[in-house]
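Convert to structure. Protein one:
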Amino acid sequence: ALAGIIPPSSVLAGLSDTTVTSVAFLFPMAKAIAATGWLEILVSIALGTPTPHFAGIVRLCLLVGPLSAIVNNTPVTAMMVPVLRGWCSRMGFDVAKFGIPL
């Protein structure tokens, strides 16, 4: 038993589910995409330079919504958080206002 709490068969049982493994494999892909720098360029172009933060939130939803319909939300969020932080910093927006819409 792992630490006397969980038997080893239960620990590995979660890996037999294809959903768990597919989400796990999306994280390295998300990191690789973010590391290229192209994502930041594309997001900056797509979000533009809105004056009110509400316009930025709408643009973010229009950008991430269709992507979330195709790809699992967890890797999309992991990929977008650093990019969104940088964009908000450049625009002078509070990143906390964009967290929930993301």
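Protein two, convert as well:
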Amino acid sequence: VLTGIFVDAAIQASASDRDNMIQSQIEERNSLINMIRGVFISFDEDGSGKVSEDEFHEMLKNSEMVAYLGAMGIDPSEASGLFRLLDDDGSGVVDIEEFITGFLRLKGQA
């Protein structure tokens, strides 16, 4: 009986740890999405909900953005290629969904 109680407690603790880990990952992902959204909004100079290649190049002059890209292993000097990568539909502008999805893909979480 004692062994059964111990095993049951271990299983419950394991399930709780797994739930906490999943919740933590969801919160981290949501935080990252909110940060990426905030960066996008701050650089959408004309408020169009889209970032042009010129606006994107301005974004890459921001030290915080450069540090973020560096942390992901991306060299800001590759801006044109990065913009084309984010511009999924080839429209010449990146909307907020393309921006978020692209950066999550680059980070390996999409």
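Strands lie at 50-52, 93-95. The longest helix spans residues 2-43.
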